[in-house]
Amino acid sequence: MNATIDLLQSHRSIRKFTDQKIPRELLLDLIRAGQCAATSNHVQAYSVIHVVNPDNRRAIAELAGGQAYIAECSDFLVFCADMKRSTEAAERAGADVIRGTTEQLVVASVDTALMAQNVAIAAESEGLGLCYIGGIRNNPAEISSLLRLPEHVYPVFGMCLGYPDQAPEVKPRLSVDTILKQDYYQDEEDQNRVAEFDDTMHRYYRERTGGNKDTTWSEQLKPLFTTKLRPHMKSFLQDRGFDVK
To answer: Is this entry keyworded NAD (predicted)?
Structure first.
């Protein structure tokens, strides 16, 4: 196995960091690596807010659900889907721009995710740890106001970065046979494969917590699909100018 594949397969979320700070030039190199990700039609529909102000970091930590490591990590980034820059550039070039389409929302969200994952891989290659923070979508309007995000820009997720002060196990994933389909979508064996994965995750949770967490992957999914998760996102995105036309 080559070093890159080995690195990718060793990813863990890190939520405890040392006091060591990431050098500024290394942080910039990570962002440059992020910019090298694939981007739809070279739109580069993203902006990254490097949150340095400690008061803002603490405020975001609370708005994201009380995740203290947002305030404690070396650096905290908020990755934003940004259609403002590109649509304004096209407008200045003489285009009669249409804004707020569903495709623009998809493009900006995908571009942002690809860019962030490049940053994540680059960070781990330098011995850093990270944790994605989807909890910023708990209160996206408040966070957008705090970060002074303009219309046609929305915060997709955050990322804690720093030098790890923990070494958790790699969390198991579904088997390749479960998610890799040949030619057509085939799910005849998925029920059995999910059952096997539930057994794997049951053992993982019990070993990781010393027997205090007695659950499975399927059980963990139940609250995600028995309530409407973050129902405010539709109106929030519309207020941001993503009308989903």
So the answer is: no
Task: Mark whether 42 and 160 lie in a shared domain.
Answer: yes
The domain boundary, picked from 109, 140, 170, lies at 170
Question: What's the full length of the chain, in residues?
Answer: 245
Question: What average pLDDT does the chain have?
Answer: 96
37-42 contacts: CB < 8 A, separation 24 or more? 37/111, 37/114, 37/115, 37/117, 37/118, 38/114, 39/111, 39/114, 39/115, 40/107, 40/110, 40/111, 41/107
User: CA-CA distance, 214 to 207, in Å (whole number)?
Assistant: 10
Is residue 149 in a domain?
yes
**How many domains does the chain divide into?**
2
In angstroms, the CA 37 to CA 114 distance is: 6
Query: Cα(111)–Cα(99) distance, rounded to whole angstroms?
Result: 17
Mean pLDDT of 130-155: 98
Q: How many Cβ atoms sit within 10 Å of the Cβ of residue 114?
A: 16
Of 80, 82, 79, 100, whose CA–CA distance to 45 is shortest? 82
